[in-house]
């Protein structure tokens, strides 16, 4: 789109609205180019105009010397994000002071470039896999980045050392445009807690998908039972036991 004849005074301000309405889950690239010329049509005098490199995109030179116009070029990357449905969170549950590994499968719709796939308006699904999953081997050509996001930096600092995530398998369906990713999540809580997280997956070729997760750490098992036998009425009974600290 081209807009011409916009007058801007000294120290003026120009707001340029940019509208992005993607219909597929891929990266879109564009440029906003602002070309400024003097209102009276004259050139800006510049003594060393001959030394300006001809490939310099920010300057347009006049034939008789001087600067005819100045350009500002702003590259824009449009990254579509699938709408997050109100789907049920995948729950990772474990007792405190124990460790659990759990497989979580997510489906990314429209992640295959060039496929006659679902538009970005249909979101993917998250499936809880408590047992290992076997999939026919077919690795995708696209690379995926992923991370866990938490509600606050405080929760992130608490769970970073307790939660691990690794991409185990991936496959794609070229007809439907759906990519299936299987993650292995390790959860080793040290105390009871309940925290929500978001698994964010981004395709290197464009597109972001988000999936809700819920980490629940239950009360730990009882370490031992201490029995104290009564020595008699109104008499003290004492029993000793050792406590070993796991930290300094």
List keywords for this structure.
four-stranded mixed β-sheet, 1 helix, elongated, four-stranded antiparallel β-sheet, Immunoglobulin-like, 2 domains, 248 residues, mainly beta
Radius of gyration from CA coordinates: 30 Å
Which shape, going by the Cα principal axes? elongated
Assign the CATH architecture of the largest domain. Sandwich
Largest sheet: 4 strands, mixed
Question: What class, by secondary structure content?
Answer: mainly beta
Whole-number tally of structural domains: 2
CATH C-level of the largest domain: Mainly Beta
The count of helical stretches stands at 1
Strand residue percentage: 35-45%
The termini sit apart by 66 Å
Number of strands: 11
Q: Percent helix among the residues? A: under 10%
Strand order of the largest sheet: 4-11-10-7
Q: What is the succession of H and E elements?
A: EEEEEEEHEEEE
Uncertain runs? 114-125, 127-141
Mean pLDDT: 81
Report the CATH topology name of the largest domain.
Immunoglobulin-like
Pfam family, one: Ig_CFAP47
Domain CFAP47-like immunoglobulin-like: 81-217
Protein name: CFA47 protein
């Amino acid at each position: 789109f081209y807009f011409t004849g916009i007058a801007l005074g000294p120290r003026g301000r120009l707001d340029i609205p940019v509208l992005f309405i993607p219909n597929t889950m891929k990266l879109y690239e564009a440029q906003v180019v602002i070309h400024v010329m003097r209102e009276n049509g004259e050139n800006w005098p510049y003594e060393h105009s001959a030394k300006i490199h001809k490939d310099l995109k920010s300057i347009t030179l006049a034939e008789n010397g001087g600067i005819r116009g100045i350009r500002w070029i702003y590259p824009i990357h449009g990254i579509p994000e699938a709408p997050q449905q109100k789907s049920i969170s995948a729950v990772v549950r474990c007792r405190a002071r124990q460790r659990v590994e759990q497989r979580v499968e997510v489906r990314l719709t429209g992640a295959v470039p060039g496929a006659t796939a679902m538009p970005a308006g249909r979101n993917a699904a998250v499936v809880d896999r408590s047992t290992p999953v076997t999939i026919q081997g077919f690795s995708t050509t696209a690379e995926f980045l992923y991370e866990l996001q938490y509600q606050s930096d405080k929760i992130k600092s608490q769970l970073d050392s307790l939660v691990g995530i690794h991409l185990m398998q991936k496959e794609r369906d070229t007809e439907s445009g759906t990519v299936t990713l299987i993650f292995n999540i390790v959860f080793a809580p040290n105390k009871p807690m309940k925290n929500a997280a978001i698994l964010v997956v981004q395709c290197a070729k464009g597109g972001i998908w988000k999936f809700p997760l819920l980490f629940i750490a239950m009360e730990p098992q009882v370490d031992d039972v201490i029995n104290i036998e009564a020595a008699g009425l109104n008499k003290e009974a004492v029993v000793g036991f050792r406590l070993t600290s796991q930290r300094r």
